[in-house]
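Worked problem 6 (solution included).
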Amino acid sequence: MKAITIMYDSLNRNYLPCYGDTESITPNFKRLAEKTVTFDKFYVGSLPCIPARRELHTGRYNFMHRCWGPLEPFDDSMPAILGENGIYSHCVTDHAHYWQEGGSTYHTKFTTCEMIRGQEGDFWCGKVDGFEKNLDLHRQDAVNRTEMQGEENHPHYKTYQAGMKFLEDNADKDNWYLHIEYFDPHEPYFVPDRYKKMYTDQAADFDWPFYGEVDEASDEVKEARINYRAVLSMMDHYLGKILDFMDEHDMWKDTMLIVNTDHGYLLGEHGFFGKNYMPNYEQITHTPFFLHHPDLHFDGERRDELAQTIDIAPTILDCFHIEKPKDMLGKSLLPVISDHKKIHDYILFGYFGKHVNITDGRYVYMRSGRSAEKGILNNYTLIPLHMFE
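Solution. The predicted structure is:
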């Protein structure tokens, strides 16, 4: 058995054709839905980026007890468990948070990992001109872009190439897991011009939305949505090439494929840009999810049973017939596909220190995790690191 996960960051499902969109030019996402089972009630667990990745490893909620940070010493890690059971795991990613202090222990759990630099002000290219202070992401992003001209130098392309190299070298081997993780379509929406021209011939320079309130009718929202869709079209192009490879090598018969995201993003909906400060709207928490398993012949179908991020690790372990650890709260999604089995009556989701949300797939109840009168909120952790500290 083999398994591939393709994970994107900040992918709003409402911009995909298989979830009702008619404007994004993404034929390969439509093709993906024909090759997999599409989940209609898949939700996040812990938000945002790194808390979601902790859930991807551990199959357990992060936001109920701690904020952004590395894997804890007591955590079970799905890739590490695979390795202990003779399954080779490889990660290729351009997600810059993995080489910041608050995310620095995740990639080490894979057997091997290839890191692609340069996204979102990643402190990568060294140029002194214009420097004023540390942690200036916008300045660093401008510097990095000078080194990423041409599609062959774009981090997304390099990540795709690294993933493809692993597939070319190992498609005929057995017992491996490949995790291809793209930072896109996370802001800033830096994308080669040919994808922008699919949507407009006019200038659309606003490609790094601020986090906060915005008028949905503004030019900023219009330009941000154009650039977001342009990134989706680039993603779609390289997704198609991976699907082509799986077709050419008949990998659908012995390889599980999962395509997912960590959370969505607001592009002017409800009067906001971003994901962190506003209530947990559906555009942020209700996410796309696709799964193909070679032994379950239901491709092209949909499932409306509740599922979420903590279910991914148990599903991958189940794919390799490995029992999940007792602390994994998530459940395998394979019975959902094979038997429409209901695995959750309800699920929780949220950010540490914000509302705790519970949903049955129809309604969401939100409740604040603290009040001003109750004082500080305890962060239960053995490694008290955040993004840059």
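Discussion: The longest strand covers residues 2-8.
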